[in-house]
Design a protein that fits this description.
With 179 residues, the protein is of the alpha+beta class. It has one domain: Butyryl-CoA Dehydrogenase, subunit A, domain 3 (Up-down Bundle), CATH 1.20.140. It has four helices and five strands, in the order αββββααβα. A hairpin with a 3-residue loop joins β2 and β3. The relative contact order is 0.22. It is found in: Cell junction, Tight junction; Cell membrane. It is a multi-pass membrane protein.
């Protein structure tokens, strides 16, 4: 039952990590200074920027060049890509460990090796997901409260950050269960 719980936590965390990687809502336009008439909502993500006009029309544009991006964004992209790949590999190792432990023919050593490897990989994956998500969240909050940043450039944490925090926690929990 404990292994199945870890497998479910890892699967949901893996899907969340993949979703947070692809979502464009890392930073969302903030409505400050009592402005209630809003025609555009701006989303900024790791891969693209999107503008929603009146909630009816959505335009997204991928970043033109990876070399023109700020260094933190390049690093965050690399971290979430590694985390997404590692989450899939961790899940496959966990499935293999659970499968071997339920068969019992290969012996407890084979299953415990897969399960321990999956647990360590889930812990690493959760950490790799939380680093860019938390750094982005901290930067968004810092810029929001900075009086030098003009009101139209202020952003709020987007849905991708919350998905990333949740999936990072689930991946860490799965890693703890398997370890």
């Amino acid at each position: 039952a404990l292994q199945i719980t870890g497998l479910i936590l890892g699967a949901v965390g893996m899907v969340g990590a993949l979703a947070a990687t692809a979502m464009p809502q890392w930073r969302v336009s903030a409505y400050v200074d009592g402005n209630i008439v809003v025609f555009e909502t701006i989303w900024e993500g790791l891969w693209m920027d999107c503008i929603s006009q009146l909630g009816l029309r959505l335009q997204c544009k991928f970043y033109d060049s990876a070399l023109a991006l700020p260094p933190p964004l390049e690093a965050f992209r690399a971290l979430v890509c590694v985390a997404a790949l590692l989450s899939v590999l961790s899940f496959l190792a966990a499935v293999a460990g659970v499968k071997y432990s339920q068969r019992g023919k290969q012996g407890p050593r084979a299953s415990s090796t897969f399960i321990l490897a999956a647990g360590a990989a889930f812990l690493l994956t959760g950490t790799l997901v939380l680093i860019p998500v938390s750094c982005t969240g901290a930067a968004v909050v810092r810029d929001f409260h900075d009086p030098a940043v003009p009101a139209p450039l202020k952003r709020e944490p987007g849905a991708a950050l919350y998905v990333g925090w949740g999936s990072g926690a689930l991946l860490l929990a799965a890693g703890a269960v398997f370890c």
